[in-house]
Write a structure and sequence with these properties.
By secondary structure, this protein is an all-alpha fold. It folds into 2 domains: 1-45, no CATH class; 47-78, no CATH class. The chain is 55% helix and 0% strand. The protein has 4 helices and no strands. The longest helix has 16 residues, at 5-20.
């Protein structure tokens, strides 16, 4: 049985780049190697209050936590 780890890693790098290249505004431009790596490794270009985690900046709960609380309210028995 042949090991396909390297091919799988390459496939995921290309897949992530295609998915995330529009996050940064580069749609048809050739991208240099350092920027290419940054696009793959960090989907958001910055960590400002608009792009970052709302809990960190606004002390809000995440969508997942809100869904969980809503689900718990519906399943509570009096």
């Amino acid at each position: 049985m042949k090991n396909h780890k390297r091919a799988l890693r390459r496939f995921h790098r290309v897949r992530l780049f295609k998915k995330r290249r529009n996050y940064w505004g580069w749609t048809g431009v050739l991208v240099e190697e350092p920027v290419y790596k940054m696009i793959i490794n960090t989907p958001t270009p910055c960590s400002c209050f608009m792009c970052g985690n709302p809990r960190k900046y606004w002390k809000e709960k995440s969508i997942q936590e809100l869904k969980f609380e809503e689900k718990c309210k519906l399943t509570e028995r009096p």
